[in-house]
Amino acid sequence: MPAKPKGPPLLKAPFLRALSLDQSRIGNRDAFPFTIPALAAEPLHIEFNHPVTLIVGPNGSGKSTILEAIAALCGFGRLGGSRDHFHADAEAETLSRYLRASWKPKVTRGFFTRSETFHGFISKLDSIARESGAGVYGADDGKFLSEHSHGEAYLAMFASRMDREGVYVLDEPEAALSPTRQLDFLRIERRAEKTERAQFIIATHSPLVMAYPGATLLHLTDAGIVERSFRATDHFRILREFYADPEGFMDGLFSDM
Question: How many domains, the chain?
């Protein structure tokens, strides 16, 4: 008979299984972040049943607040990075200190990115590469990440880091990417997901990113957090109406001006 493999069996993503609000830790419910409509409507509870979870909603709906809290629970810093590069700080824990997380198992590998701080993040990676003498980080053309365009650096980092186990918390990755590059990103994401060792939690406004096959889509609304199809979002509906009749769509938009 063949020998049994040694060690515990490898567990598959998702590793972070659930988040819930610990009501006993809340002092002032009228203070931020509990004034965010989606959080004020009902106690926060999210179950992660698929390796890819998408969080959508209008500006100000709380997407970044929730992602920052998840990043802090993983040990990632508020401005982005992994546990190797940055440490969580008190500001990042505004919501996370009120949360309980269920893990199977606890994974602290991966990283957090947000579009508005990404330039500083890649500059830090390049600085580490120069100081350590480890060579250029991520890119395969001999250039440092900061020597590439914003979108090229984003994709180079994703391609080099998403081939390993981890939780990847991404705040609006499409902000740096053209539609064609968004498709490249989706292919990188798919390759990582198929390893069964990568979990993605992504806030996005992009219908292309929202349409990722099999993903769980959570919509932040004034009534709470609602799971729905990407086709039921305003993001998809508005673009569908535009593509069906661009000229008529624009005429209607400016008809009262």
Answer: 1
What is the domain range of residue 113? 16-253
SS3 20: strand
Taking alpha carbons only, the member of 172, 146, 162, 187 closest to residue 82 is 162
Task: Provide the CATH number for the domain around residue 73.
Answer: 3.40.50.300
Per-residue model confidence (pLDDT) at position 8: 46
Q: For residue 156, is it within any domain?
A: yes
pLDDT of residue 133: 58
Over residues 211-243, the pLDDT tens digits come to 999 999 999 999 999 999 999 999 999 999 999
> Within 10 A of 188 (CB to CB), how many other CB atoms are there?
16
Residue 62 maps to a domain: yes
Q: If we measure between CA atoms, which residue out of 208, 203, 197 comes closest to residue 51?
A: 197
Burial class (CB in 10 A: 0-12, 13-18, 19+), 68: buried
User: pLDDT, tens digit, for every residue of 82-137?
Assistant: 776 554 454 445 789 899 999 999 988 998 998 777 777 777 777 777 776 555 55
Domain contains 7: no
Is the residue at 1 inside a domain? Answer: no
Using DSSP's 3-state secondary structure scheme, residue 126 falls into helix
The two structure tokens encoding residue 203: 């806030």
* Closest alpha carbon to 36 in 21, 54, 52: 21
